[in-house]
Structure formats: C-alpha cells, structure tokens
C-alpha cells in the first residue's frame, strides 16, 4: 500500500532493480472526521467517519495529490511505479457497522443543498434531520433525480484527477477496484477512464469461484455506461485449488485483459 511511504519506497526500488511493474494502492476509506473534512451521511441518518464522496477537498488531498506524487516518483531513475489502484471499499465505515459502499449516500448538508439549488427548491429542506431526508425526497418526487445528480459531481472530481495525472505523465495507469455497480462507482469510473486512457478494472466477478463462467459481458456493460477499461478477473486463492488455478487464470485472462490474485 502507498499509505506506508517507507515500505512502499523499498518496493519501488526493488521493482526497478528486477524489472517489475508496480502499482501503488490508494484507499478511499479515510477518517474524514479526524482530518476535519466533510463527512458522508447515509440514508438511515448515520453520519459516518468517511468523507463525503463529493467533497472536492477530500479528492484533492487524498486522491489527486497522492496520485500525481506517485506518478512523479515513478519517473525517477531509481524507482518504478507504473500506476495506481484505487480501492473504493469503505473499511473505516464497515468496521463500525456501516455500509462498505456509498450506495445509500450521501445526504450531507452540502450534497442535498447543492441538489436543491439545482432544482430551484427552498434551502429550508436542508434543515430536515438526516434520518428524514430520504423520505422527504421521495415525498417530493425528487429521489429518482438525486443520485444521478451526485453521480455527475463525483464524475467531475474523478475526471479532474485523471487530467491532473495525465498532465504529469500520460502513460501512468489508473486502476479501479471493485467492479462499478452503484451510482458513485459508475460516476468515478466514467471520470477516470477515457478511450485514449482506459482504466484497469480489478474485477471481482470471479472472486468466489466459478472461473471463466462468472465473467460477464463486460465490454457491453462498460460501454453502456460510458466506461473504457481493461478487464482483469480476480481470484481469491481460498476458492481455487492448486489443481485448477492455472487453467482458470488462463481462461479468465482470455476473456479480458488479464487476471489478478
């Protein structure tokens, strides 16, 4: 993980020495409360420790600046860093009994206030208690438009990050985990990928066994959502035996662009 600079630096130097490609992992799970950043609010009214996914300050500090820094480090003669993998699972939230994705978020004052401004609705609604905001949006027949609006906001932040990285180093890969399956993940994937620079998708469809039979028609699905990617199917070793691992690795790779363990 790139979160431990001293340890990661050893990997960068050794990767350069032996001719390996190294990807630094950036985690989206982050203690925003401790950092003084805007916190996410979930549909049940829970104000989490993790950051609001639309917070530009969080994106700048935790994702964009660190991605650009790793891209620059990989340009030096003594270090090898070919790209980053962004892990979008919210371990800091799920560890406290909350959700591991932003599927049912974010209903913070800023998010709902921005949405109401676009809809030209009174900002008085932003005074509604967190736990009542989903019900209010549904009552006002605004709920169906809410997450598409937020999706556009996270897409803008992700695109800003991609453009900043490309400006420094166009050949730097941006990786994505897991497969995008909700409004937030889809928005980010749309923003960090482009036909000229597809993202690397560390997919989880084949995680729990099943091998190539679990690989979806990912080309059609990603194209439908406007996402450009290289597909790598993941395998958890506890679900694959030594007798069939090699065969599954080859067959999964043939259905996409690679595999990962």
Task: Please describe the structure with a list of short key phrases separated by commas or semicolons.
single chain; 261 residues; alpha/beta; 6-stranded parallel β-sheet; two-stranded antiparallel sheet; 10 helices; 8 strands; 42% helix; globular
Provide structural commentary.
By secondary structure, the chain is of the alpha/beta class. Helices cover 42% and strands 14% of the residues. It contains ten helices and eight strands. It has helices at 5-18, 32-35, 56-73, 91-94, 109-118, 133-139, 143-168, 183-192, 218-224, 245-254, and strands spanning 23-27, 39-41, 47-51, 83-87, 173-177, 199-203, 229-234, 258-260. The strands form two sheets. The chain has a six-stranded parallel β-sheet with strand order 1-4-5-6-7-8, covered by helices on one side. Strands 2-3 form a two-stranded antiparallel ribbon. Helix 3 runs parallel beside helix 7 and helix 7 packs parallel to helix 8 (183-192). The longest helix has 26 residues, at 143-168. The two termini are 16 Å apart.
Write the layout of secondary structure elements.
Blueprint lengths: L4 H14 L4 E5 L4 H4 L3 E3 L5 E5 L4 H18 L9 E5 L3 H4 L14 H10 L14 H7 L3 H26 L4 E5 L5 H10 L6 E5 L14 H7 L4 E6 L10 H10 L3 E3 L1
Parallel strand pairs: 1-4, 4-5, 5-6, 6-7, 7-8
Antiparallel strand pairs: 2-3
Helix pairs in contact: 3-7, 7-8
In short:
This protein has 261 residues and is an alpha/beta fold. The protein contains ten helices and eight strands. The chain starts with a helix and ends with a strand.
